[in-house]
């Protein structure tokens, strides 16, 4: 995996790197196709070096990228057969199939997260979904995170799915702060992580309730009927929203990056520090202690989204001064370049 850019700083972090989790454990959990901002920020070119190839193949994003690029399973370990694949689609002229009001806008640069339940089968009207994080305060009349299903429709009602637009399986008010960065999905699509912009910022891991609103009063829907009629996770529903406050200021532009192998999230804040959260999707989300957080910048404190290079075991992150830095997670990594 390679990431272009000028590295102007280097931070040292001696951390225990768990390499005992082999490919089977790391990637066999992939049962669908999550697509979020993190999948658009890494490239996995072919390598002639065995150690590089082995490191790459431990990263679930590599196999997900192969699925998107090739549309069929390459020669690979047996566990890759568990990843469902759908063949290449013919290119057609793009057009707007539908539009729906979200009440509040999305932040500039926010990338929605989409989950394809089975890429080896026809699209699913009920299980394929997309998550939008909204740049507005949550309230009783405004959601700040929503899910949409029934995606494959059109205004004429002649789409793959019935109806003329998407449906809201859930719409939640998760707090009084806006969400200014992109959400991240778990590999199985059952959970979504995102950051609420507050002082201090709040890291969320949301497990939506997919039971809908049957039997619920229209004025108080169990899971929300649309962006302006939201519900609160855990109130009249079985949704679970785990919240962790971190940092001393907000989070304007640093979405979380989840390391699926170790079930760890890395996220920045507007205080110039990089934070680590363990047990994100498979355990109990917990803010890591010393030596975390790490001070990345004392001048350009608003940080970008971190990107983990699974080959070098380095985290690349930028600041508001335009400086790109890297954090090394292995004590054996020899830092090069100006400090």
Provide structural commentary.
With 339 residues, this protein is mainly β. It has a domain at 99-245. Helices cover 7% and strands 23% of the residues. The protein has 3 helices and 18 strands. It has helices at 23-27, 50-57, 60-70, and strands at residues 7-12, 33-35, 113-116, 129-133, 145-149, 167-172, 184-185, 192-196, 202-207, 240-245, 257-259, 264-268, 273-278, 286-287, 294-295, 307-309, 314-318, 324-328. The strands form 4 sheets. The protein has a 5-stranded antiparallel beta sheet with strand order 2-3-4-5-6, with no helix packed on it. A hairpin with a 4-residue loop joins strand 11 (257-259) and strand 12. The two termini are 23 Å apart.
Task: Put the structure in a nutshell.
The protein is mainly β and about 350 residues long. Helices cover about 5% and strands about 25% of the residues. It starts with 6 loop residues before the first strand and ends in an 11-residue tail after the last strand.
List the SSEs and their pairings.
Elements (H helix, E strand, L loop, with lengths): L6 E6 L10 H5 L5 E3 L14 H8 L2 H11 L42 E4 L12 E5 L11 E5 L17 E6 L11 E2 L6 E5 L5 E6 L32 E6 L11 E3 L4 E5 L4 E6 L7 E2 L6 E2 L11 E3 L4 E5 L5 E5 L11
Parallel strand pairs: 1-18
Antiparallel strand pairs: 2-3, 3-4, 4-5, 5-6, 7-8, 8-9, 9-10, 11-12, 12-13, 13-14, 13-15, 16-17, 17-18
């Amino acid at each position: 995996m390679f990431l272009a850019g000028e590295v102007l700083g280097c931070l040292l972090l001696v951390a225990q790197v768990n390499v005992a989790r082999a490919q089977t454990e790391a990637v066999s959990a992939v049962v669908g196709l999550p697509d979020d901002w993190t999948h658009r920020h890494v490239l996995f070119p072919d390598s002639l070096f065995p150690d590089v190839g082995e490191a790459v193949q431990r990263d679930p994003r590599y196999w997900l990228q192969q699925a998107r690029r090739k549309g069929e399973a390459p020669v690979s370990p047996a566990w890759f057969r568990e990843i469902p694949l759908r063949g290449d689609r013919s290119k057609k002229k793009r057009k707007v199939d539908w539009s729906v009001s979200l009440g509040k806008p999305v932040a500039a640069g926010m990338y929605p997260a989409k989950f394809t339940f089975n890429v080896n089968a026809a699209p699913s009207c009920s299980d394929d979904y997309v998550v939008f994080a909204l740049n507005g305060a949550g309230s009783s009349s405004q959601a700040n995170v929503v899910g949409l299903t029934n995606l494959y429709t059109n205004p004429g009602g002649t789409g793959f799915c019935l109806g003329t637009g998407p449906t809201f399986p859930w719409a939640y008010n998760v707090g009084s702060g806006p969400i200014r960065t992109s959400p991240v999905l778990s590999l199985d699509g059952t959970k979504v992580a995102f950051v609420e912009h507050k002082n201090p910022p709040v890291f969320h891991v949301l497990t939506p309730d997919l039971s809908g609103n049957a039997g619920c009063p229209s004025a108080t829907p169990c899971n929300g009927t649309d962006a302006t009629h939201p519900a609160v996770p855990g109130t009249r529903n079985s949704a679970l929203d785990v919240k962790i406050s971190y940092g001393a200021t907000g989070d304007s532009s640093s979405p979380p990056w989840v390391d699926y192998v170790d079930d760890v999230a890395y996220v920045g804040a507007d205080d110039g520090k990089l934070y680590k959260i363990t047990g994100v999707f498979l355990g109990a989300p917990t803010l890591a202690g010393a030596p975390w957080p790490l001070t990345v910048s004392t001048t350009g404190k608003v940080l970008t989204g971190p990107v983990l290079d699974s080959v070098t075991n380095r985290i690349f992150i930028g600041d508001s001064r335009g400086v790109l830095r890297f954090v090394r997670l292995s004590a054996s990594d020899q830092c090069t370049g100006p400090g």
